[in-house]
Structures
1.
Amino acid sequence: MTTQQLTAQIKKKNSFLCIGLDVDLTKIPPHLLTQEDPIFAFNKAIIDATHHLCVAYKPNTAFYEAYGLKGWKSLEKTIQYLNTNHPEIFTIADAKRGDIGNTSRMYAKAFLEDLGFDSVTVAPYMGKDSVEPFLEFKDKHTILLALTSNEGAFDFQTKAVDGRELYKQVLETSKSWKNSENLMYVVGATKAAYFADIRKIIPNSFLLVPGVGAQGGDLKEVCKYGMNAAVGLLVNSSRGIIYASNDENFAEAAAEKAKELQQEMAVILNN
Ligand SMILES: O=C(O)c1cc(=O)[nH]c(=O)n1[C@@H]1O[C@H](COP(=O)(O)O)[C@@H](O)[C@H]1O
């Protein structure tokens, strides 16, 4: 998918919501546990109830890898379901990969080619040759961790190296990499104060913004400093949406939560 197609979908749906499919079997409604594939059954119900409210889904692969072969199968079925039924929706494999070049090439093949995701999250710290293999795929996107939502972001990312914060160096340096037009960046919603500085370095790139909902980030603040002329934001909420209820009505409850965020977004987009 191109960023133009993503932006068109944002305008059409009045939404830049990304729903995180972080499925934990201890949190899903107990009645699903008797199904042959409870993770996929849960995801399918969530997708069926929310696809008109969001423009992206982001399964975090940890929640699938934790269940071994069965979990990976559920991930495969989820991306196939999305690509078959909602090809206009942007998909993110939140895998946070990155390794020496030939290994990154295999990660890129796994997520962007074999599974068929539109994008994958990648850690930048092994540098250019660890990221460029992901950038080779046409109309696929590499979402580089810039300034993450967690407390630990202050351990390294905001520390100055050669007089400039490390996250700024990641933004600046990565712009010169081959096919860098395929880059997007992760910036946590909990770091709203940093968005203005970030936009000075990468005015046009899409930002994946996790951390609203369960982690307490503020949507309005994020938009005030992070939005660009083409919107340029995908705001993610996982637990705050998918675990709104663990009764039989869980999918409708998730849709209600997604709608609350979408309506806030619509107001912001139309102001
Ligand atoms: O790459 C991410 O998506 C990510 C980066 C980051 O800085 N912080 C962050 O929370 N995430 C992911 O975004 C999701 C947030 O989930 P909730 O806090 O439940 O909305 C999880 O899948 C996290 O792994």
Note: The first strand starts at residue 17 and ends at 20.
2.
Amino acid sequence: MALIKTEALSYQYPGGKILNFPALQIGINESWLLTGNSGSGKTTLLHLISGILMPSSGTLQIANTLLNNLRPAEIDVYRAKNIGMVFQKSYFIDALSMHKNLLYFAELSGKKADIEFVNKLLNDLGIANLARKKPTTLSSGELQRFSIARALINKPGIILADEPTSSLDDDNCKRFIELIIGICKSYGVTLVVATHDARLKKEFVNTIQLN
Ligand SMILES: Nc1ncnc2c1ncn2[C@@H]1O[C@H](COP(=O)(O)OP(=O)(O)OP(=O)(O)O)[C@@H](O)[C@H]1O
């Protein structure tokens, strides 16, 4: 069964052209690359899947839930439970250690942080030795590895990453993408990476191409 399924999905920003998306069937624990030229709608599609935007037409189904039918409050609950996000730039609080940052973000969702899970994540990502450091003392490659931990902290079924490697050099890019694909595989998480970064193409079997 598909975890993410769309049919005839489209979105139109006020006054903008209609963005039409190909039908998608993305399975549990699969890794997908979302590519296309600048302006083709990669970020918009990620925002539709995460419920930040509602489709103008078409259907979007995640597991057994038709997102079109949800009310805004239900969408917020859906997003908090199901979606982890990784962005081009990491977002952490400078005054807190990385460990405290992760506990803080875990608790933002209203649940008590699972410290054992946080520690397991840090070990699995090979960043436990950096957990006492503050964000300003870390490199962009190290911060992006913590962004993976942040995205996984509430145990989502789906991770959406928007241009996660565009500020990384070749070594960090390779390390990051292998790490996020590997950890999503081992945690049973479905991964969609939107990018125009040609370095990522060879890492994915499944590709969505937007025009
Ligand atoms: N908030 C907005 N209001 C109006 N138009 C928007 C808005 N955000 C994006 N667009 C337009 O919608 C289209 C798709 O944008 P989107 O950011 O999804 O593309 P993208 O493929 O992610 O591009 P890039 O690779 O440059 O990030 C573009 O034409 C863009 O100008």
Note: The chain is about 35% helix and 25% strand.
3.
Amino acid sequence: MSEQCSGNCGACGEECAERTESQDLHESPHELSKIKKVIAVVSGKGGVGKSLVTSMLAVTMNRRGYHSAVLDADVTGPSIPKMFGLKEKASGSDVGIFPVRTKTGIDIMSINLLLPNDTDPVVWRGPLIAGTVKQFWTDVIWGDVDYMFIDMPPGTGDVPLTVFQSIPVDGIIVVTSPQELVSMIVAKAVKMAEMMNIPILGLVENLSYFKCPDNGKEYRIFGESHIDEIAKEHNLQVLAKLPVDPDLSLNCDKGLIELFVGSWLDEAADLLDSKVEK
Ligand SMILES: Nc1ncnc2c1ncn2[C@@H]1O[C@H](COP(=O)(O)OP(=O)(O)OP(=O)(O)O)[C@@H](O)[C@H]1O
């Protein structure tokens, strides 16, 4: 038994004689799904741009010739369908539910693709929300997917916990912004990832700076960034720093995220590139 044993075998990766429950609680995906890599995108709180980064990663990998998918696990604040301008609802058959395909061929599943109205609030308790996310994995016919990006609910509550326990996530990307309590958020993410035995692939700082179109100067409008020191402290890589870009918010609002211009996520994409063969 490890000296630091908490008695919670489900949250520990150690193999020891005292283990009381099976380590692998992962559910199998639908029998018609073959998903090569699953990447969870997490943040400490809402509104820092987690869904935007999830969408941009899916678009970037799709542009590189991979088949990307997005599982929107942010059930109470689903913003993925809107960013991709999806109007149609998901359909199903006796065999399972079909994701909705975007204009450029990215497959999406989100609670907003199942509810009659986009504006219907999801006023559900944690277990029901977590069960829905699990079903997005087990009951959706994803087909062949190279990269599935999961837009996680913010924080470290019971829904993220169930997602990490039931879906075999290969890596985590943490999105932060300069005005948050970044060091605490990153430390929490690192601890959660250790408990779940999932590697953190790196950090993305959103809203990092604003580049003035008139003089080309960069302004730190949300404060100085500390992401480099924090990354070093935890031996993590900073994969990208995204500016505050009015074109990005316009693309989000118009459902045209597939048209974004910018190479900010190239380093993250290079890292992912190395993980899957086309
Ligand atoms: N770098 C950016 N430049 C311009 N606008 C941005 C940027 N990042 C985010 N936004 C705007 O902020 C909105 C919120 O971002 P997003 O939905 O990705 O946050 P979130 O962290 O997923 O929030 P929640 O968890 O509440 O869903 C976006 O729709 C977009 O309009």
Note: The domain at 34-271 is CATH 3.40.50.300 (Rossmann fold).
